[in-house]
Design a protein that fits this description.
This protein has 17 helices and 22 strands. By secondary structure, it is of the alpha/beta class. It folds into four domains: about 110 residues, Cobalt-precorrin-4 Transmethylase, domain 1 (3-Layer(aba) Sandwich), CATH 3.40.1010; about 120 residues, Tetrapyrrole methylase, C-terminal domain (Methyltransferase, Cobalt-precorrin-4 Transmethylase, Domain 2, 2-Layer Sandwich), CATH 3.30.950.10; about 140 residues, Rossmann fold; about 80 residues, 3-Layer(aba) Sandwich (Udp-n-acetylmuramoylalanyl-d-glutamate--2,6- Diaminopimelate Ligase, Chain: A, domain 1), CATH 3.40.1390.40. The strands form four sheets. The chain has a seven-stranded mixed beta sheet, sandwiched between helices. It has a five-stranded parallel beta sheet with strand order 3-2-4-1-5, with helices on both faces. Helix 2 packs across helix 3. The chain binds S-adenosyl-L-homocysteine.
């Protein structure tokens, strides 16, 4: 390693994921220019005390080159330290070109790219027989535009495992483009934030919901999005399936999707075509349509290859139909104007703890409004799922969601748990929004997954640790009574037989 200038990969963050060669280069360097935002400062402990350290975030290319040139003229050794491996988005070409012009020699020391640290964190093999034998490393356009042929849709069309760098702030568009490019909304997706750093975070989900989860976790940078069936290798899908999580707590409908039966009501020929598109992508759906529309829509139906039950109802009989379907389906999707839906369902509404999910979707599938049953009914989840199918926008107005907070009734519903005292939900959702102190006792890992960044919430391991006036207690011990004057939201595992599946 006699070359005076070395471009080195610092690895993904952990100071012991540096190559020995890089550590040796740092140990003899006189000048280290490092990428401050992504290189873990602990890596710089490999440098000599008298080594000059310069954060490249504060200087431009000309200044970097001037520093290198000056050091070389004094016969000093320089390490230009890049995060991960310098060959991925390291912007080393422009530096090498300038050094070539100056006839300054250099060499490159590879590093462990963050994409492989992310795979390690996920315990994932990117290439698995039958699933994928290729890995595409890419990004979405930022200040650097993407070449014409390297579109998200083009990559979505391959079966390759996809890894997106530099795209955490663009996750909503990216996941939508992947879906509209042909990837099923249920395709496994994972985001790894600061792989190998002490504050590493892993978020698992699907293309349909990873954006919401990542937003809820407050991640906007220093993260990779991985997409592909290979992520689903084992039972390590979600913390809900963790081995410490006893069977009774597991929910069939897990955390992201609404998987109940859906009734779709279409009021026009265009609406019918949209209903066929949506129903075709849902697990279990039936379409209801006025007789006269069905009669005039033979071609629409013929175009749909999926076998979706379609039932006609006579003019003026919609109220009667709804009275029957209301309890038979867990989701009701009106492809119609909001006013029609509101008028039709209003006599049927009981309470948010028992009402089904009701959505309104415009004929183009552009806006999918979660109208009733946002949390417990699952309408917000269903709206996101439908938006994933149509490429539209889920319109969600429940206050906690607007603030990217997972309400406790939503968490319970996702997990198939029941709230024993639902009258308290209002108090707790308001407290979440008003940053009041709440002690929270949840099954392993869920607090970290959903509430780690919320300063007003404190995780407790047992009821004896509760000191706040407000507490959420999952599975309270038998005979336990909350302190007088305190408010407690009690959450119980649902008996297995009642879990939706
Ligand atoms: N050369 C680097 C990539 C630099 S581009 C490498 O090989 O890893 C910067 C992007 O890399 C970030 O936006 C993020 O997408 C990703 N990245 C870098 N370090 C990361 C880490 N520790 N965890 C997750 N993503 C990381």
């Amino acid at each position: 390693m006699d070359t005076q200038v070395i471009f080195a990969g610092a690895g993904p963050g952990a100071p012991d994921l540096l190559t020995l060669r890089c550590a040796k280069a740092l140990a003899v360097a006189d000048l280290v220019i490092y990428a401050g935002s992504l290189v873990n400062p602990e890596v710089l402990q490999h440098c000599r005390p008298k080594c000059r350290l310069v954060d490249s975030a504060r200087i431009d290319l000309d200044e970097v080159i001037a520093l290198i040139k000056e050091a070389v003229s004094w016969n000093q050794k320089v390490v230009r330290l890049h995060t991960g491996d310098p060959a991925m988005y390291g912007a080393i070409s422009e530096q090498m070109n300038r050094l070539d012009e100056l006839k300054i020699e250099y060499e490159i020391i590879p590093g462990v790219s963050s994409v492989f640290a992310a795979a390690a964190a996920l315990k994932c093999e990117f290439t698995m027989p039958d699933l994928s034998q290729s890995l595409i490393l890419t990004r979405t356009a930022g200040r650097t535009p993407m070449p014409d042929k390297e579109t998200v849709a083009n990559f979505a069309a391959t079966g390759a495992t996809l890894a997106f760098f530099l795209s955490a702030g663009n996750m909503e568009n990216l996941t939508k483009e992947l879906i509209s490019g042909g990837k099923p909304p249920a395709t496994p997706a994972a985001v790894v934030y600061r792989a190998s750093w002490p504050n590493q975070k892993i978020i698992r989900g699907t293309l349909a919901d990873i954006f919401v989860k990542v937003t809820a976790a407050g991640i906007r940078r220093q993260a990779l999005l991985l997409v592909g069936e290979v992520l689903e290798r084992s039972g390590s899908l979600s913390l809900l399936y963790d081995k410490h999580f006893s069977h009774g707590y597991r929910s069939q409908r897990s955390d992201e999707f609404f998987s109940g039966r859906c009734a779709l009501y279409a009021m026009s020929k265009t609406g019918y075509a949209k209903a066929l598109e949506i129903a075709g992508a849902l697990n279990d759906a039936e379409i209801f349509i006025p007789e006269r529309i069905l009669a005039g829509s033979a071609t629409v139906a013929a175009e749909s290859s999926a076998k979706i039950p379609v039932k006609a109802f006579a003019a003026g009989k919609m109220d009667k139909l709804l009275a029957k379907t209301w309890d038979d389906f867990s989701g009701h999707i009106f492809i119609a104007a909001t006013g029609i839906a509101v008028r039709k369902i209003s006599p049927l509404l009981k309470h948010k703890t028992v009402d089904p999910a009701v959505l309104v979707c415009d004929e183009n599938g552009a806006q999918i409004i979660s109208l009733i049953g946002g949390h417990i009914g699952g309408a917000n989840r269903l709206a996101r799922k439908v938006a994933g199918i149509t490429g539209g926008t889920a319109v969600i107005t429940t206050a906690t969601d607007v603030h990217n907070i997972i309400a406790f009734d939503e968490l319970a519903a996702r997990s198939g748990w029941e709230i024993k005292n639902p009258a308290q939900i209002k108090i707790f959702n308001a407290a979440l929004l008003e940053n009041e102190r709440i002690d929270v006792l949840l099954p392993d890992g869920l607090f970290q997954e959903h509430y780690a960044d919320m300063k007003n919430l404190r995780e407790v391991a047992e009821v004896a640790e509760i000191t706040a006036k407000l507490a959420v207690v999952f599975n309270p011990p038998a005979n336990w009574q909350p302190e007088p004057g305190s408010e407690t939201l009690l959450v119980l595992p649902k008996p297995e037989s009642q879990c939706e599946n």
